[in-house]
Amino acid sequence: MIFLKWEEPQEPNGLITQYEISYQSIESSDPAVNVPGPRRTISKLRNETYHVFSNLHPGTTYLFSVRACTGKGFGQAALTEITTNISAPSFDYADMPSPLGESENTITVLLRPAQGRGAPISVYQVIVEEERPRRLRREPGSQDCFPVPLTFDAALARGLVHYFGAELAASSLPEAMPFTVGDNQTYRGFWNPPLEPRKAYLIYFQATSHLKGETRLNCIRIARKAACKESKRPLEVSQRSEEMGLILGICAGGLAVLILLLGAIIIIIRKGAGDVKGLTMG
């Protein structure tokens, strides 16, 4: 959107009846925009000295022309060039695909190229976030993605729950391709470590555009990896083994005590019987 305002000519050469504003695109960093574009013209009343232009292409330079009209015709036009800001890239993930594969330490997802809006895509990033309770988890939205690159080691040192698992050049993703999160490889300086089976993760895909000092990015969650239940079995088996060993030990100890008691009772009975026999004979 562009807000254009102009001043009334100092020497209008008569009473101004209207203003004529013309504009057309003359340059764009978006290859989908035709330049030079068609010339469009609008008219404004004599007391209207501003206009708001909407539905313009992002990252595009427009040439504006304003001239006043009197009873003697149009005067000299005033020209100016204005460039619109670039917009965040857009993704085509309307039909969210299921993971292509999953193991205890990895998950394979489908990466789809984004569409630049006013500027080409500069770089892609794959972000891995450990799933935590809601009060601890950040929820990226269209205005709150991951603007600061963060390696796994840096995130670990700072106690953060997310890190960049990979950075990919825009040219490396001309079409949709699979990518394995946790493959233990390094992508442009970002290590993609194996995932911990006992943790759950959220996987995000981010696209970034840079142009003339402007940066726009967009991210979308493309997968979730649940914690592996199988990883808890060794601990449970170990705990149960310890409990069973404790129970068996208690039983064995109780049995030994019982045997000793029975042996003592038998000795006492035999001794008592011998004393009674000796007394009878005497």
TrEMBL record:
Protein name according to UniProt: Receptor-type tyrosine-protein phosphatase U-like
Annotated ranges, domain Fibronectin type-III: 1-90
UniProt entry keywords in alphabetical sequence: Disulfide bond, Glycoprotein, Membrane, Repeat, Signal, Transmembrane, Transmembrane helix
Domain of life: Eukaryota
Signal peptide coordinates: none
Keyword Iron: no
Membrane topology: Single-pass type I membrane protein
One GO term describing the cellular component: membrane
Main localization of the protein described in the UniProt heading: membrane
Cellular location(s): Membrane
Residue ranges of the TM segments: 244-269
InterPro entries assigned to the protein according to its UniProt record, in alphabetical order: FN3_dom, Fn3_PTPRU, FN3_sf, Ig-like_fold, R-tyr_protein_phosphatases
